[in-house]
Amino acid sequence: MAFKSGFITIIGRPNVGKSTLLNLLTGEKVAIMSNKPQTTRHTIRTVLTTEEYQMIFVDTPGIHKPKNKLGEYMMQEALSTFEGVDLILFMVDANDKNIGPGDNIIIEELDKAGVPVVLLINKVDMVEKSSILPLIAQFNEAYEFEEIVPISASDARTKDQVLEIIQNLLPEGDMYYPEDMLTDQHEKVLAQELIREKLLHLLSDEVPHGIGVEVIGFKEKSQKKIIEIDANIYCEKESHKGIIIGKDGKVLKRVGTLARHDMERLFDSKVFLKLWVKVKDDWRNSDFMLNELGYKKDK
Q: CATH number of the domain at 4-169, please?
């Protein structure tokens, strides 16, 4: 078979399992995962290369109705990935009984993309099999998908199944990236996202969405295989600052420990991580802060 290559975007509403699938397919933890919606804020490109193909995956923020300037940025990011890709993986949740308003927005955009679309109905391990058939019928009526595939992104068997479908639909072509490249994300962005993931896991529901992370220092000492990272954690309320730090600093220490372990594995270096918590009122509506944290509108 001829070598195949192409860009694949993974789209869907918040919390349908896009990042879980991306990490399963690539075998690396590049996209952050959480059971809270709107976990992903950046589009993440991850490269998977074998002797037969090179797949460049684009994980996107969940498509939702924006409530602030950060939300507007995330929507712009997600919809912009429809352009210039070779295949779209549209993920929905098997727990949904009907096509929702958010899915209808996506379906309208799919018509404009002009590329093959595969519908992945995720979390089928959490529902009765008989309940999936009506949902498949609804989506079959709504759009002409290349395939409709029930999956569980947390099941290792899903990996080969989805990769085979993608390979069959990708065009023939040369590599876009070096064969040993994992992601086009800067290491500082990966560090920020790993810190934010730990905050999402450890904090109560009302706090995480008002959190931003900025890596202000990233020094590599290559001879000693040491990376020194300094990061600010921004929140919108003084009361949230206390929650993030925790009693006797326990929560912040736990965040730092968990993030550091993931960074050391990903960067293959010893990591020294320092974290500070700062209050920035309504930063999600501040153009300056969004620019500082890498959420830029001029992409």
A: 3.40.50.300
pTM of the entire predicted model: 0.62
Residue-by-residue pLDDT tens, the chain, 299 positions: 789 999 998 888 878 888 889 888 887 655 544 444 444 444 567 889 999 999 988 766 555 454 555 555 555 655 555 667 899 999 999 998 889 888 888 888 887 778 899 999 999 999 988 889 999 999 999 999 999 999 999 899 999 999 999 999 999 999 888 887 777 667 888 888 889 888 888 876 656 567 888 888 889 887 778 999 999 998 888 888 988 998 999 999 999 999 999 889 888 889 999 999 988 877 677 666 666 666 654 44
Contact 190, 49 (CB under 8 A): no
Q: For the chain, which residues make up each domain, given as ranges?
A: 4-169, 187-292
Specify the fold of 187-292: GMP Synthetase; Chain A, domain 3 (3.30.300)
Helices 157-169/18-26 angle, 10° precision:
90
